[in-house]
Amino acid sequence: LHLIHEVNEQTNSDQYPIVVHCTAGVGRTGTYIAIDAMIDKINQEKKVDVYNFVLQMRRERHLMVQTIKQYVFIYRSLLEYYIYGNTRIEATMFQSIYSNLRKNKQ
């Protein structure tokens, strides 16, 4: 999730397309594309249809999302994003955030 967030922060996909490619261009590539697209759907509509999205990708490029592990990873990643959002903390902010969390716990 952090990688997707960083790529989207550093690029302007409205102006230029983002190229995603693993060794074969299907398994990890499809997994990355599915997670990125479904995060956009969560942000816009608060719902996703992973099955039909992957099915559509597979109509356009055979074997996108190659394994059941990759398919499950998509669901787990989206669940984590939906529940927790972006939880990235800069190292310089860790101590103060950690202290605040400990105070709130007590």
TrEMBL record:
PROSITE patterns: TYR_PHOSPHATASE_1 (PS00383), TYR_PHOSPHATASE_2 (PS50056), TYR_PHOSPHATASE_PTP (PS50055). GO terms for molecular function: protein tyrosine phosphatase activity. InterPro entries: Prot-tyrosine_phosphatase-like, Protein-Tyr_Phosphatase, PTP_cat, Tyr_Pase_AS, Tyr_Pase_cat, Tyr_Pase_dom. Gene3D superfamilies: Protein tyrosine phosphatase superfamily. Coiled coil: none annotated. Residues 1-72 form the Tyrosine specific protein phosphatases domain. Pfam families: Y_phosphatase. Residues 1-81 form the Tyrosine-protein phosphatase domain. PANTHER family: RECEPTOR-TYPE TYROSINE-PROTEIN PHOSPHATASE (PTHR19134), TYROSINE-PROTEIN PHOSPHATASE 1 (PTHR19134:SF449). This is Protein tyrosine phosphatase. It comes from Adineta steineri.
